[in-house]
């Protein structure tokens, strides 16, 4: 197993964050890891944490705009993960990849509605 690929920034330092997003967007991250760990586990945890925080802020009677901003803050990441699964699954092919694509879309609908 090789070390994670890193990319150098303008200052010469490697950017692992850029490597994380780039590998997912380009479809080079393993589909199982992308779907189960990144989308289902981490993505769901982030959404639950920010929804709970939004409810706490609402309970503290803070401005509704702030509450909504906190609640919807993970949406760009949610869309990124869903499209990353979609793109990676297209490269992989097969029934498993198709089911993961369907699962990612259903997950996105669930986190947007709830």
Write the topology of this structure.
Elements lengths: L6 E2 L5 E2 H10 L5 H29 L4 H9 L2 H18 L2 H19 L1
Antiparallel strand pairs: 1-2
Helix pairs in contact: 2-3, 2-4, 2-5, 4-5
| Strand order in the largest sheet | 1-2
Q: What count of helical segments does DSSP give?
A: 5
Question: Nearest-angstrom radius of gyration?
Answer: 17 Å
For the termini, the CA-CA separation is: 38 Å
User: Number of folding domains?
Assistant: 1
Strand content: under 5%
Could you give a short account of the major beta sheet?
2 strands, antiparallel
Query: How confident is the prediction overall: mean pLDDT?
Result: 89
Residue runs with pLDDT of under 50 for 5 or more positions: 1-12
**What is the element string, with H for helices and E for strands?**
EEHHHHH
Please bin the fraction of helical residues.
over 70%
Please report the total strand number as a whole number: 2
Q: What structural class do the secondary elements suggest?
A: mainly alpha
Shape verdict:
elongated
């Amino acid at each position: 197993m090789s070390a994670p690929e890193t990319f150098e920034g303008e200052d010469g330092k490697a950017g692992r964050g850029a490597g994380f997003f780039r590998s997912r967007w380009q479809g080079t991250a393993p589909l199982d890891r992308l779907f189960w760990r990144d989308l289902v586990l981490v993505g769901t945890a982030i959404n639950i944490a920010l929804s709970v925080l939004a409810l706490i802020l609402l309970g503290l009677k803070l401005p509704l705009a702030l509450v909504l901003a906190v609640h919807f803050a993970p949406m760009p990441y949610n869309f990124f993960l869903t499209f990353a699964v979609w793109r990676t699954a297209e490269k992989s092919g097969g029934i498993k990849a198709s089911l993961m694509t369907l699962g990612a879309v259903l997950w996105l609908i669930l986190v947007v509605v709830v």
